[in-house]
Design a protein that fits this description.
The structure is a single chain. The protein has helices spanning 31-42, 67-70, 75-93, 110-117, 144-152, 154-163, 169-174, 184-199, 203-216, 221-235, 239-249; strands at residues 7-12, 15-20, 50-55, 60-62, 99-103, 106-108, 120-124, 128-130, 167-168, 180-182. The protein is of the alpha/beta class. The longest helix has 19 residues, at 75-93. A hairpin with a 2-residue loop joins strand 1 (7-12) and strand 2 (15-20).
């Protein structure tokens, strides 16, 4: 496994925990961290069936993008920096496995956008979310205007982005930004428990389900339903479907091989 300067990788029972580790800057994203993330995502072990993303330390998930790197950029350079982050986050969103954000602290700016790119968001009671970019003379650049509106609704997204207001974990739960809130010491325990529950299921079926949810969101109803029907049919060409249904009918535990 590749050694990274800013990422810690731990693999156990087909669940990978990826920790962004730049504690001196509260794990703020810079070009080097984005490149490492891109490299990791591009070469992920095929045996990984769920990914947990979290931040190093007790204070911060990801405190944002590195302002010292952004401050001198011109328009063309700023667009390239934003596109680089958006590309990495799109890779996370479209990974063929579920991705869980375990938000342990500040998730501001690029950190909130990173959490938004994940499939499921779990938060520590100490977590804070926000898109404070307008206070810096910019807008969210890693797809935050797109994903926050889809996840929390257009009105909520506009309020949070226009004001730059940070919200606590309980409000994030209320508006549907996170799935659950836990005490800090329980966050990773619960994230791992959720990942293991996912891993027990047929991996191809989980992959197809994620693809359906992602692809169908913006489709008209008839097209979305037709897409689901096609993916449902594809399941019956897999060994996992035979194993799962046979196990059910014979009252045995199913064992899946990603085939």
């Amino acid at each position: 496994m590749t050694d990274y300067n800013f990422l810690k990788i731990d693999l156990a029972e087909q669940v990978c925990t990826l920790t962004i580790s730049a504690p001196k800057s509260l794990n703020a994203l810079n070009s080097n961290i984005l490149k490492e993330l891109d490299d990791f995502l591009s070469g992920m072990d095929k045996n990984i069936r769920a990914l947990i993303i979290t931040g190093d330390g007790e204070k911060s998930f990801v405190a944002g993008a590195d302002i010292s790197e952004m401050q001198p950029l011109n328009a063309e350079e700023g667009e390239r920096f934003g596109a680089a982050g958006a590309k990495v986050f799109r890779k996370i969103e479209t990974l063929p496995i579920p991705v869980i954000a375990a938000v342990n602290g500040f998730a501001l700016g690029g950190g909130c956008e990173l959490a938004l790119a994940c499939d499921i968001r779990l938060a520590s009671s100490r977590a804070k979310f926000g898109q404070p970019e307008v206070g810096l003379g910019i807008i969210p650049g890693f797809s935050g205007t797109y994903r926050l509106a889809k996840i929390a609704g257009m009105g909520v997204a506009k309020e949070l982005i226009f004001t730059g207001r940070a919200i606590k974990a309980d409000e994030a739960l209320r508006i549907g930004l996170v799935n659950a809130v836990y005490e800090p010491e329980q966050l990773m325990v619960e994230a791992m428990s959720l990942a293991k529950r996912i891993v027990k299921n047929a991996p191809i079926a989980v992959r197809y389900a994620k693809e359906c949810i992602n692809e169908e969101y913006d489709l008209p109803a008839d097209e979305a339903i037709a897409f689901e029907s096609r993916m449902f049919g594809k399941c019956f060409d897999t060994k996992d479907q035979k194993a799962g249904m046979t196990a059910f009918l014979t009252k045995q535990e199913a064992h899946f091989n990603n085939e």
